[in-house]
Amino acid sequence: MLSLVATGFFLGPSNVCYDNIGCFNNSRPFTNTFGALPKSPASVIENLTLFTRNNINKGELIDFNNPYDIDLAYWSSGSPIKVVIHGYMSTGQEPWGDFNVITVDWRLGSHDLYKKSAANTRTVGAVIATILQSLQQTYDFSMEDVHIIGHSLGAQTAGHIGSRIKRLGRITGLDPAGPLFEKYDTAVKLDRDDAIFVDVIHSDALPFEDAGFGTRISCGDIDFYPNGGGHQPGCPSPVKVGIEQLLSMDFKDAFLSVSCSHDRAYYYFVESINTKCKFVSYPCGSYKDFMTGKCTSCGNKPCPTMGYESNISSARGDFYLQTNSKSPFCRK
Asked: What region holds the Lipase domain (predicted)?
């Protein structure tokens, strides 16, 4: 599948091109992965699977190697489209919702050294964008009906999808990965310009050396900071990441041992779908001000709820709330 590799002097490959999705380089602004280039789709993606109300228990595989020749027996015309993308060291095998749901299992690319996994988000984003454009031509839907839900590196992948598709409806970023993204150009990460509406839940926004794997920076139309956006109640205390891991970006074991807060964003979002309790949140300048009772209303407008129904609100900006330490997380 690899059709071209351009090699730089002493620097290794500086450009790679793959059939159907185009070329990638590691020049600015894509310097965040320290020269690592994205691998080919076949080396990164395990499978793409379609679930609908007619095949909830058995997904239909989508042939991502032939994106321009897709014929899906279970596609539900007229139904909204949800694309669910997992993050670092995870998999994407579970169905979600009652729509045209495409789950993205890119475990082949997400279980690598972190910098390589970060680079692979570009391949996954390009493949999904190509698939969606092909499906649109076949089934005639609006991209405004597409909702991408991404966790961790999956949230950053969603940003790459949005940069390739105009007027994408919505992106939900569930604790977007911070390392190798937070301090870099918006071209390499999720930002509010990647969709008509971008909502973000920050649940692990500690400094990286304190084992924070999420991003602190606001990057959506509306950003939610449950419990301040850092360490989540009920999770083990964070353990500092060693200097060797920082330099090598090889922190698989560290990630698995401290990912509780990072994963909470996903659980909060799922709970917002499955329960009647609302994660009501409040605008505030800081979590400290919120905790001292300085932010207790949203003026004349209803306060937004964190999670699936956040798009109902016209509110924009940073919002704070508290949760319980275990499920159910929503406070009544």
From this structure: 15-329
Which of 86, 147, 231, 262 is labelled catalytic? 262
Structural domains present in the chain:
40-275 (3.40.50.1820)
Bridge partners, 224 (sequence order) = 201, 319
pLDDT tier, 313 (very low <50, low <70, confident <90, very high otherwise)? very high
Identity at 10, one-letter amino acid code: F
Question: Among the options 40, 117, 152, 203, which is catalytic?
Answer: 152
Is 314 among the residues known to form the active site? no
**Is 77 among the catalytic positions?**
no
Give Cα 22 distance to the centre of its chain.
Answer: 22
Kindly give the interhelix angle for 153-164 and 114-139, rounded to the nearest 10 degrees.
40
Q: Kindly report, residue by residue over 93-125, the tens digit of the pLDDT.
A: 554 556 999 999 999 999 888 899 999 999 999
What is the value of pTM for the model shown? 0.91
245 phi, psi to nearest 5 deg: -70, -40
Q: Per the residue annotation, which of 76, 134, 163, 175 is the catalytic one?
A: 175
pLDDT at 293 over 50: yes
